[in-house]
Amino acid sequence: PCGPACWYGPFTELVNAERVSLRQFVVFHMDECLDWQGRELPRKHPYSFRGFMEEQFYAPVDAGLAVPEGNRYWVNAQNVEELKEAIRSAPIDITYGGWGQDGHIAYNQARREPYSRLTVDDVRECTVRIQYNNWDTVMALAQRTFGAAYQFVPPMSVTLGVKECLSAKKVRLFSDTGAWKATALRVALFSEVTAEYPITLLQEHPDALITATVATAIHPVSEHPEWDLGL
Known about the structure:
This protein is an alpha/beta fold. Helix content is about 30%, strand content about 15%.
């Protein structure tokens, strides 16, 4: 995924310092934002995940150690079926990433469509696809990058499905963004599995680990028992 971003610097420094070869490393990138016509964004756009990863994850690694171009699978509107087949033929060893404010893994967001509600089975079996981003995802991205100017946030995305992400032998999710994901963390740990929070499906995985900062682990509700919200 394009984040958590805090680990790219230490990772690439370690690869170069220890001369760790990534020549056999195969990377399936999780997701990508798209414009309103489903097209890729310019590489310098703040939400071009490919542009960010090329600059932060690949470029700093010495050329002799770097992941070969042919081992980098970028997701876009044109290669959905190709990615499905590639993942089926080369099972994933580890899914690494973060989670969103609604507990999305990759860009498997909780759908807000009033006329086509999803069941847990729908979410569990969803695969690579193009979609419109939820309004809460748009607002969250706007607040983080554009001073809440939601008009500049890409309205569409393409993503690996929950099925691909959770097909990995290991799943490791991290967060470094504090209170923004505090509720999703609690739901992931204490809720029953629900389509409203895709991250809850990690409860069914045999080898999943979630790591969070103290700021994410502290929830405002827990600090204010006088609110008595009846949660």
